[in-house]
Amino acid sequence: DTLYFFGDNNFTEWGPLFQHYVPPPFRIPGTSPAYSFGIAGSGSGVPFHWHGPGFSEVIFGRKRWFLYPPDKTPHFHPNETTLAWLQHTYPTLPPAQRPLECTLRPGEVLYFPDRWWHATLNLDTSVFISTFLG
């Protein structure tokens, strides 16, 4: 299971957390960042989707990321988990059709560009926070 917590932008709900956490210093002029905080079990994740740009940081555990640019729609079933996609679809992809990928560890941050397809897989019990820039 994965639990996500979304807070407001005036830090009312996030005040105690942000006394200990410093978000990435990058911004898009004229916008306010939005945050989500997650706790997830090993093997859970989010299937392929896209949205505006942002950062994701792992606080505890490891999170594997799979990314495709906006002009390269990944082959996936919307009701399939990332773990199922990795076990069944990923091995059949020719190398040129495989996504960019990386594994984030505690203290590491990934920037995901605007409209890039991405999916995640928590390799361990994980705690993470995302900063949405749009």
UniProtKB/TrEMBL annotation:
Residues 1-134 form the JmjC domain. It comes from the Eukaryota. InterPro entries: Cupin_8 (IPR041667), JmjC_dom (IPR003347), JMJD6_ArgDemeth/LysHydrox (IPR050910). PROSITE patterns: JMJC. Signal peptide: none annotated. It holds the Pfam family Cupin_8. GO terms for cellular component: nucleus. One of its GO terms (molecular function) is cis-regulatory region sequence-specific DNA binding. PANTHER family: ARGININE DEMETHYLASE AND LYSYL-HYDROXYLASE JMJD, JMJC DOMAIN-CONTAINING PROTEIN 8. This is JMJD8 protein. It comes from Pitta sordida (Hooded pitta). The gene is Jmjd8_0.
